[in-house]
Design a protein that fits this description.
This protein is mostly helical. The protein has nine helices and no strands.
Amino acid sequence: MNPLLVSIVLLTGACVGSFINVVTWRLPREESVVWPGSHCPRCGHSVRWHDNIPVIGWLALRGRCRNCDQPISARYPLVEALTAGLWLSAVWAIGFRVDTLSSDPMTTLVTLVGGVVLISLLMPMVLIDIDHLWLPEPICRAGVITGLLASALVAAFGHPEIGNSLLFNHLLASAAGLLVLEGLSALAERLVGQPALGLGDAKLAAMAGAWLGLAGLGMSMGIAVISGAIFGVIGRITGRLQPRQPFPFGPFIALGIWLVWLMGPQWWWSQWVALIGS
């Protein structure tokens, strides 16, 4: 991989991660994500531009506000670094995924831009769901729209002969994800007296369908259910989760979406068949 490209992707991803921190803090509080600029939530002083450099600014300040000397959570540089790494994973995945789509440079560009947009939408939803058990509808809606747009562009450049059927597949998957998870939640509420999933989870499943299609939706939901169940069992065994205590399921759906986007549903299906066969 070209070192210059790696550097650009990491730097841009870290800057987007810095903005994701802002969105994660302000959106649940119904504050503007663009105004005012970055400031200390404790003393209110604006953050100087050189202190706002992703990761490096936090390290230079030794994790403390320059004005009030109060600690700044290590989550900020971790989110910036993680976002940068996930952006880089999108670039890495291009070589794997484009081979199955088309060698057309435009398809490569659309797939790359789609990947970094997807992870940039998933990250704030995961963090907000962890903090507030809430998946913001505006981001879910934006995820569905951009997913369908990306699918349409890939179909147009990579598979123009089946473009309409491919787009219909993703439209159908988006609707199926929404309706199936809403139905399961309503059924659980009738059977056990409380919904098994939030409506935000259903909207995130709709986003999964828009980006991945029917096969990808099924595979990503399978990964989400398995990983969420493992987390729930470990939580119960360790005593961190009480009976019927809710925990965020959005991060597991997001994990399934990203893993399937990286490798494709066919790769995951082949791994599952190999595991069962062994």
